[in-house]
Amino acid sequence: MDDNVHTYRIPALTTTRKGTLLAVYDMRRRMGRDLQEDIDIGLSRSTDGGQTWSPTQVIMDMGEYGGLGQEQNGCSDPGILVDPKTGRIFCAAVWMWGKPGKHQWSDDGSEAGFEIGKAAQFLMVESTSDGRRWSAPRNMTRELKREEWVLFAPSPQGGIALRDVTLVMPSQGRNEEGAPFSNIMYSKDHGRSWTVSNPAVIGSSECQAVQLDDGSLMLNMRTERDIALMRSVFTTRDLGQTWTAHPTHLKGLIEPSCNGSLLRFDYQDGGEQKHVLIFANPHSQQRRDHHTLKVSFDEGMTWPEEYHLLLDVGGGAGYPSLTRIDDRHVGLVYEGSQSHVVFEKFSIDELLHREVK
Question: Which residues, other chains included, contact 138 with Cβ-Cβ below 8 Å and sequence gap of 6+?
Fold first, then answer.
C-alpha cells in the first residue's frame, strides 16, 4: 500500500493562479469502501504541467476526534476552487463522526439538523501558499446546510470563478425526504461568506458548473440510476434561485450513473476569441468503462462523435475531473483501468483536430 493507503479515489483537479496543478482525493486507509471508514483527504502538487507530482500531503484528517477511532472520523469527496483574484484556494469535504457501517447517502447515515454525530458535516480548508500549506478544517455546516436537509456536501469537482469573480462551487445533498439533489454554493466576497442555492433538480447528485456566453450557469449532473442513464442538465440566471431544464436534459449525454466533469475552454483562433465545452465521463449506460472526452462547439447543445476521444476502454470507477492547465492544454484526472488515479494532458489542438502551424 502506498503511504499506508489501500485505495485512492474521488479525485478533483484545479490549476492555481501560478499555474500549479492541484489534485485532491480520498485516501482510503483500510479498504476501498465509502464512508463511514478511515478516510483522509490527500493532495498532490505539480509545478511542471503534470510531468511530475509531489508526494501525497494530507490536508484533512480528523484523527480520533471525540474519542472515536479514525475509522469513525472519515472525510471524503473533496471539491476544490481557486480565487483567480486573490490566489486563495478552498478545499471542501464531507466528514462523518460515528455511525459505523453507515453511509451519508443512505437511510440515517446523515440526518436533519446540524449536530455532529447525526448530520454529516461540511468542512473546508484554505491555502494562501499555492497549496503548500493549509489551514485547520473549518466546520461550515451551520452556515451552509438548511436544517431540514438530511445532507449537504461538496461535489467532488473543481469550482469556477464567474466573469465578475463570483466564486461558484458545485454541491449536492439530500432534501428533507432524503432524496438526492444537485445545487451550487457561491461567494461574492472572495470566500469570506457563502450562499447556498436552491436544488436544481431532485434525483441528481455529483455535478459541475460552467458559465455560458449569455452569463447564465449550466449545471451538468449525475442522474440517479432509477431515473435515467442520461445526464441531467439545468441552467440558472440568478445563481440558483430558479433553475430551467436545458434542452439536452436527460437527452444529450449518456452515463452509467457516475460523476462527470464539464469545463469551458476559451482560446484564440486566428485572432478570434472562441470557446468550447469539454466533457469527460464513462461513455456507457452499462458500466463505468469507455472513459471518454467529448467536445461541444455550441455550448452543450451537441457533442459531435468525431470529437469524442476514447481514453480507456477498460473498467474503473470513472470520476473524471478536468482543468485548464494553460492557454493550450487541458488536464484530466480519473479512475481508470490501469491505476487508482490517472493524470492525462491534452493540447486543445489535438482535441479540436487542428493543425499546429
Answer: 123, 124, 125, 126
Pairing of strands 272-282, 121-127: unpaired
Q: For 162, how many CA atoms within 13 A lie in the half-sphere containing its CB?
A: 24
Cβ-based neighbours of 352, under 8 Å, separated by 6 or more: 276, 295, 307
**Residues labelled as active-site residues:** 206
Confidence at residue 226, expressed as pLDDT on a 0 to 100 scale: 83
Contact assessment for residue 303 and residue 279, using Cβ atoms and an 8 Å cutoff: yes
Q: Is a pLDDT exceeding 70 seen at residue 356?
A: no
Interacting residues of 192 by C-beta distance below 8 A, sequence separation 6+? none
What are the φ/ψ torsions at residue 349 (nearest 5 degrees)?
-65, -40
Residue with cell 483500510: 30
Mean pLDDT of 166-191: 99
pLDDT tens digits along 152-169? 999 999 999 999 999 999
Q: Quote the pLDDT of residue 2.
A: 77
| Side-by-side strand order, sheet with 244-245 | 204-211, 217-223, 232-236, 244-245
Secondary structure string (H, E, C) spanning 226-284: CCCCECEEEEECCCCCCCEECCCCCCCCECCCCCCEEEEEEEEECCEEEEEEEEEEECC
Q: Where are the domains of the chain?
A: 1-147
Q: Which three cell numbers stand for residue 230?
A: 442520461
For residue 103, the Cα-to-chain-centroid distance in whole angstroms is 19
259 to each of 133, 156, 222, 341, how far by Cα in Å?
A: 28, 8, 6, 14
**β-strands 160-161, 151-154 pairing:** unpaired
CATH class of the structural domain 1-147: mainly beta
What is the chain's mean pLDDT, rounded? 97
The Cα–Cα gap between 21 and 158 comes to 12
